[in-house]
């Protein structure tokens, strides 16, 4: 299946595939079959790596060679989107193609680029836009992402584009405040982000091992800074597929609930199933969720006992006990 705007842009000769040097792709996984075979994808998400590797497409954290053409698919985070465009301009010996949905800010980005770069033909289709830019390497220097995590609050550091990059997430804070003193010896934080919740969990002396499982490589690198504890083990992985070598006493989590701008409760349900599969028979799951998200049926499917143990007007704290052994 072709990408609707890339195929149209190639037909309209808005840009041409290079005869040599290959194509670099930045941003979320999407269809790139129109870009030919000589493509390398730069992504920080473990899910993207699994997606592209299953399709025999090389995927890297950083480009090893300068491409002749780069294509940037906009992520949802504004600062990250601008950073990827700036990176592509700086690292590419040729034009840069920018593609995105209106809901991901493509119109705003296009407006901001005018005057900073030469913008070619704009292709509009399927609720999004594609255009080609060329610019001096330093034209977008102000958009470059920082090379190292930056301090945000209470001594913690983050990077643009990671979840709750501007400060402590209120739902994670609420869960941290509501956790009991005894969580067991072996614990996991699924979707650990930049490590705030894990840092609070490790205030408990009884914990021997805490697994931080996070799909976003940048967030996990921040967590390494924020959780300098020898009991912490860091896993760059999809939390819905990760399994510990030994069953756990406890899982804590503030699961993501959307992959686009629309809510996707199935993602949280997958986290619940993964938590149940990782726990020992007497293990417990402590999680926080937005009040409107219907996670109780999924919890009842995977746990023998489900309790709401706290919360406020925006969030609910949920406890799952006695994980269903058939689901492990």
Describe this structure in words.
By secondary structure, the protein is of the alpha/beta class. It folds into 2 domains: 4-143, Rossmann fold; 150-327, 3-Layer(aba) Sandwich (Rossmann fold), CATH 3.40.50.150. Helices cover 26% and strands 29% of the residues. A 7-stranded mixed beta sheet has the order 3-2-1-4-5-7-6, with helices on both faces. A 7-stranded mixed beta sheet has the order 12-11-10-13-14-16-15. Strand 10, helix 6 (196-201) and strand 11 form a beta-alpha-beta unit. The two termini are 36 Å apart.
* Proportion of residues in extended strands: 25-35%
Shape: elongated
What's the CATH H-level superfamily name of the largest domain? Vaccinia Virus protein VP39
- CATH topology name of the largest domain, in short, is Rossmann fold
Neighbour order of strands in the largest sheet? 3-2-1-4-5-7-6
CATH class of the largest domain: Alpha Beta
Structural class: alpha/beta
Core attributes:
Rossmann fold, alpha/beta, 7-stranded mixed sheet, single chain, 328 residues
Helices and strands in order:
Elements (H helix, E strand, L loop, with lengths): L3 H8 L11 E4 L12 E4 L3 H8 L5 E2 L8 E5 L4 H14 L4 E6 L4 H8 L4 E8 L2 E7 L15 E4 L2 E3 L11 H9 L7 E5 L5 H6 L7 E6 L2 H10 L5 E5 L11 E6 L11 H14 E12 L5 H7 E9 L3 E9 L5
Parallel strand pairs: 1-2, 1-4, 2-3, 4-5, 10-11, 10-13, 11-12, 13-14
Antiparallel strand pairs: 5-7, 6-7, 8-9, 14-16, 15-16
């Amino acid at each position: 299946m072709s990408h609707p705007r890339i195929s149209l842009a190639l037909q309209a000769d808005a840009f041409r595939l290079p005869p040599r040097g290959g194509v670099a792709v930045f941003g979320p996984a999407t269809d790139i079959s129109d870009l030919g075979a000589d493509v390398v994808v730069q992504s920080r998400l473990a899910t993207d790596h699994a997606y592209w590797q299953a399709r025999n497409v090389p995927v890297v954290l950083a480009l090893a060679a300068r491409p002749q053409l780069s294509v940037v698919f906009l992520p949802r985070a504004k600062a990250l989107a601008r950073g990827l465009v700036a990176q592509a301009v700086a690292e590419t010996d040729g034009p840069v193609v920018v593609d995105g949905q209106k809901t991901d800010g493509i119109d705003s980005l296009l407006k901001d680029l005018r005057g900073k770069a030469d913008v070619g033909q704009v292709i509009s289709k399927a609720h999004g836009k594609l255009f080609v830019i060329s610019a001096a390497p330093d034209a977008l220097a102000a958009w470059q992402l920082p090379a190292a995590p930056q301090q945000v609050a209470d001594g913690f550091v983050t990077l643009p584009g990671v979840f709750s990059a501007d400060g402590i997430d209120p739902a994670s804070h609420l869960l941290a405040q509501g956790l009991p003193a005894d969580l067991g010896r072996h614990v996991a934080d699924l979707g650990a982000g930049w490590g705030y919740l894990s840092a609070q969990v490790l205030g408990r002396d009884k914990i021997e091992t805490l697994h931080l499982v996070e799909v976003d490589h940048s967030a996990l690198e921040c967590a390494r800074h924020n959780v300098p504890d020898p009991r912490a083990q860091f896993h760059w992985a999809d939390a819905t597929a990760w399994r510990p070598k030994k069953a756990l006493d406890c899982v804590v989590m503030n699961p993501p609930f959307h992959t686009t701008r629309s809510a996707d409760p199935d993602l949280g349900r997958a986290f619940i199933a993964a938590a149940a599969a990782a726990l020992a028979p007497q293990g417990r799951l402590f999680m926080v969720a937005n009040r409107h998200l219907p996670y109780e049926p999924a919890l009842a499917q995977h746990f023998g006992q489900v309790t709401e143990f706290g919360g406020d007007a925006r969030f609910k704290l949920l406890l799952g006990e006695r994980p269903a052994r058939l689901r492990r």
